[in-house]
Amino acid sequence: MKNPPEKPNGADVDHASINRENARRSTGPRTEIGKKRSSLNSLRHGLTGQTIVLPSEDLAAYQAFHKRFFDDLQPSGMLEEQLVQTLADCSWRSNRARAIETNLLTLGQIEAEGAIQANHPEAAAALAMAQTYRDQARALANLSMLEQRLSRQFEKALKQLRELQDERRKCEDSEMNHAAQLLRMHQERKLPYEPKEDGFVFSTDEIQQHIRREERLEDAEHAHYARNAAA
User: Fold this and answer.
1) pLDDT band at 40 (very low <50, low <70, confident <90, very high)
2) How far apart are CA 64 and CA 174, in angstroms?
3) What pLDDT digit, counting tens, does each position of 80-110 carry?
4) Which residues make beta-bridge pairs with 44?
5) Which helix (H) or strand (E) holds 172?
6) Contacts (Cβ under 8 Å, ≥6 apart) of 116
7) Which of 88, 62, 228, 211 shows the shortest CA–CA distance to 161?
8) Orientation of helix 121-135 relative to helix 78-112, angle to 10°
9) pLDDT at position 13
10) Exposure string (b/e) for 119-142, b if CB count within 10 Å is 16 or more?
């Protein structure tokens, strides 16, 4: 039976330790391209590996764009957040498609400069534009189909979001009205009330604020009827 080969210097080679030491010494990507690729790791979808922000695009601009959607639409819960994410990404990609279309036309005109002979600059520009549409017909058609698909996705997600938010707000209004009734009853009986005991997520202050707002609205409605009656 052959003996196993000896390790160098008679010592065991611990590859795991070597890898950990190399990782500790690593300073990360050093080139601009490497840094951009590294910065996009958190934006890659786990299932498809799709990257929303391209290396040539501004990550901070995307994040600010994304934040505006969430600030304006105020999603609550995972489903609403996912729909708002879809709206933001569809809009970002649609804007990119429009920019690519403009860049294609601009590039075509630049490349056609001097190649088209015309007696007037505007005529030369018009012919260069026509040639660009002819040469880039397939690319422009693909961009148009992409924009249409993104538009349909956007409209579908927006419709679903509105339906979810309408249903949620109706439920919240109903729950708040029930909580207000219970709080009023406890106050009339001079008893303490803890909304959580009845399964409500509202605080006592939030319920009190709702009650005061409803009372002001009721007073305003009575004042409106009184003015109409006196007129």
Assistant:
1) very low
2) 35
3) 999 999 999 999 999 989 988 888 888 877 7
4) 51
5) helix 137-188
6) 124, 127, 128, 131
7) 88
8) 130
9) 52
10) eeeeebeebbeebbeeebeeebee
